[in-house]
Amino acid sequence: MNRLIAIGAVSALLVVPQALMAQDNEIEPWPGNSQLNPWQHCGIGAQVFDDNTTASALSNVIWDSGSTAVTSATISPEMCNSKDIQVAEFIDSTYDTLAVETAAGAGEHLNALLTLQGVEGSDRSTVISRLREDLHARTSEEHYAQLSHSDRAFQMYQSLNNASGT
Amino acid sequence: MTRHIQAIIFAALLFPIAGLSEEVSNHPTWLALLHHDRADLFGNTRSAIVSRDFFLSPNGDLDPAAELRQTLAMFEADPVSYGDNEHPRCRFPARAMWLKNQGVIDYHKETQCTALTEWLDANSDSRIGLVFADGYLGNPASFFGHLLLHISPDGVSASEHTALLETSVNFGADVPASDGLLRYMMLGVTGGYTATFSETLFYQNSHVYAERQMRDLWLYYLDLDEGQRDFLIKHLWELRDVEFTYLFLTENCGSRIGRLIELATSRELVPANPLWVAPESIILALTTKTRDEPILAREIIHLPSRRSKAEHKYRSLDPEQRRAAHAVWPSHEEVNLEAEAFLSLDESSRGVVLDSLLSHLLYLRRSHPELDLTQVQRRLLAARLDLPPSAEAVRNAPVAVPVHEMSPPSHIGVSGTNRTGGEFGITLTARAAQYDLLSGESARMPYSALEILALTVKWFSESSAKLDDLTIFSVTNLTPVPHRLPGGRRLSWHASLSWRESDLLSNDRIWQAELLAGRSARLHDHVVYGLLGLGAHARSTLDEALGLTIRGGVLTNWDERFRTNVFLSERFAREDPRDSGPQLSIHGRYALAPRIDLSFELEIDRNNHQGSFGVLRYF
Question: Which residue of A lies nearest to B163 if distances are taken between CA atoms?
């Protein structure tokens, strides 16, 4: 199965047209082990309600937080149901809180993110330092304020994967 | 498929129907497994589940005995005839467990249920808890709080850090996104929606309730033994994708999750035919020791809302740090990181100040999405990242009263009353629900009131007892800015409908509807508020009058036990013959003992006065 997923990922790199990648100029192909961009390929973020909708106001409403929309025929459903996607969903849902806790260097959401990513023990402080460096570089530029939520979340996702060596 | 049907029919024919124990099909646990707990006006009962595929018998939702017969027949079917996950025992493991424990059936051949096995492996050793989200006045459906089921998979207690990644099970109505609030309320009360259990990681629910709606959460772990946990986990498996009838008052998160706990513990938590089920009543039942039942929920974890965290961080600042905070962020658009008050602090203190400001910024971004705070956020983040990280995780632990220690929602009271002319009398009061401005408990929405069905009866020696006041509902939401940080002003409001005297000591009773809006501010332990709006008065003679109502007051929290509300009200209407002028009201409440308050009220206008002093008992 892993081999199939790897083949799928490579295929995605070859087949996904550049136009798809260029839909949002801020999002670039991720240069890590997988070419999967959860925000572009798996529809992450689409299920998050705007703050002012009726649905977000109704506490008894159920939303489909677990499933994501596969937006590319070259990305298999399995790829959009992997641990990476859980990490991406967590970042997408809690980005603002994560950024604040990353700046402070500690916090329950940051802790949960590292647990989800499988970063344990003394590696945690190293990864947190790398996340702080990357976020510092981003927020030092005026441009950061103009980025969309998805762009910021994807940047943190990239940063985490690079810092944790996955 | 044909082979399956043949096997089932064959087994059903073989099964000795006459030998079925009526005792088993009427057993409370069997009825609970079928959620056979709805009754119509004629006393006929049926299942609250509307999904046809939950029942193995065509009449299973109406006839528990038929469902039992069909269940036993299908459970007996040879597993060899079924593929992985297809045998009925894979679909209904809790039924299979209970029927086996009752000695009704025994299984000689194992079934292959890979998906169920994975579910049980992940959850069988779990600790089960309930999460209570306090009331939310942003939406009538959430006024009375919300209840979630929480599963800690590794069997140990969650900390506030690990709870985010644990399993949360929500029960709620499936409401189309296009349905507005009024349609939701109408269909929610009349049964126009179905509801399902949904499973997700807890951070999703925490984000909605604690981070967006600013509701404090309370996680109560239940003392369940291994068998009870196993039974509950298996039944949750059975309820995946199953649709229930949804009724806002009686078939809601509180009643449905309460009945799940009843199933596992055989302890009655939900009355047989309730008029309504408030989520907090389930928590109260689980935390109350009775003669026969021990306390079922002991370990409690407070998960504060973003507002609680932000306010707590601000209050934890020392005076110099507060001055620095105000200097750094004096207004919504302005950030001054060169302020002398800030730069004079050491690195550690500057970090604490920025942590507090960033927590407040998170609160503002979610409570005031109309504010553009992106540049402020960027600059505060960059400044904080310039400083070293916190030495250790700062615990956000604002002190709050857990829901089970709050006063219960209903009360009765009796007081002695004196009024103009030296008359003495007795005043009786009663309220069905829920809390008022003098309740003063932090697990409720702060500075808010939600009263449903409250009445006052007065009896003076010279006259017979009279219904003095009948309040259908009264909702007040004061939203004071708790500090001098940029706050994003929020509207304070009040809405009520009541039948009451037109003026103090008047014999004229009128229907009165009020919708007021205004501002409030907090000064130390005082909340000062001013409200203005429409007041519609309708007398029995139907000479309706619409006028302006203005009200201003001070709500004071003198200490943990003593609160007062002093307010002045005046009403202006073109055709109003009243000449009594503004009315001054002084209301106070002192917590004498758990569930018992001393209460006093004084009302004065130009012509009359009335004072009372008495005691309230909550239940």
Answer: A112
Q: Is residue B392 part of a domain?
A: no
Q: Are residues B150 and B72 in the same domain?
A: no
Q: Which of A69-73, B259-263, B336-340 has the lowest mean pLDDT?
A: A69-73
B44 Cβ contact list (under 8 Å, min separation 6): none
B416 and B517 housed in the same domain: yes
Rounded to a whole number of angstroms, the distance from the CA of A82 to the nearest CA of chain B is: 15
Q: Assign residue B537 a region (left: φ > 0; alpha: ψ between -120 and 50; beta: otherwise).
A: beta
Report the amino acid identity of residue B604.
I
Q: Is residue B450 part of a domain?
A: yes
Residue B391 in domain = no
Domain boundaries, chain A: 2-164
Is B86 within the bounds of a domain? yes
| pLDDT at residue A105, as a whole number | 94
- How would residue B223 be classed by pLDDT, with cut points 50, 70 and 90? very high
Picking from A58, A100, A105, the nearest residue to B175 by CB comes out as: A58
Count of beta carbons in the 10 Å neighbourhood of residue B597 = 24
Tell me the sheet residues that pair with B147: B132
pLDDT digits (tens, 9 = 90+) for B523-537: 888 999 999 988 777
Q: Which residues contact B200 (CB under 8 A, 6 or more apart)?
A: A65, A66, B167, B168, B170
A53–B374: do the CB atoms touch at under 8 Å? Answer: no
Into how many domains does chain B fold? 4
Asked if B132 and B239 sit in the same domain, the reply is: yes
* In a shared domain, residues B430 and B558: yes
pLDDT of residue A14: 35
Tell me, yes or no, whether B364 and B230 share the same domain. Answer: no
A24 phi/psi in degrees, rounded to 5: -125, 115
Between residues B427 and A4, which one has the greater pLDDT?
A: B427
The span from the CA of B306 to the CA of B130, in Å, is 20
Residues 6+ apart with CB under 8 A from A162: A32, A130, A134
Q: Are residues B447 and B567 in the same domain?
A: yes
Whole-angstrom distance, CA of residue B57 vs CA of residue B64: 9
Q: How far apart are the first and last CA of chain B?
A: 57
Nearest to A116 by CA among A130, A103, A132, A127: A127
Question: For the whole model, what pTM was predicted?
Answer: 0.81
Helices (H) and strands (E) in chain B, counts: 17, 21
In degrees rounded to 5, what are phi and psi of residue B466? -130, 145
Q: How far apart are CA A67 and CA A74, in angstroms?
A: 18
* Tokens representing residue B274 in the block: 């309730």
List all residues 6 or more positions away from B266 whose beta carbon is below 8 Å from its beta carbon.
B28, B29
The SS3 of residue B446 is: coil
Distance (Å) from the alpha carbon of A161 to chain B's nearest alpha carbon: 19
Domain finish residue from B273, B303, B333: B303
CA B149 to CA B200: how far, in whole Å? 11
Distance from B209 to chain A by nearest Cα, in Å? Answer: 7
Whether residue A3 has pLDDT greater than 50: no
More confident residue, B578 or B464: B464
- Note down the domain range covering B609: 403-618
B485 burial via Cβ count (<10 Å: 0-12, 13-18, 19+):
buried
- Please tell me whether residues B324 and B425 are part of one structural domain: no
CA-closest candidate to residue B463, choices B415, B419, B502: B419
b/e code B328-367 from CB counts within 10 Å (16+ = b): bbeeeeebebebebbeebeeebbbbbbbbbbbbbbbbbbb
Instruction: Search chain B and give the residue with CA nearest A109.
Output: B161
Q: What is the pLDDT of residue A41?
A: 65
B162, closest residue in chain A (CA to CA)? A112
Mutate to test the interface with B, among A58, A110, A133 (most CBs of B within 10 A): A58
Which ipTM was obtained for this model?
0.80
B551 and B429 inside one domain: yes
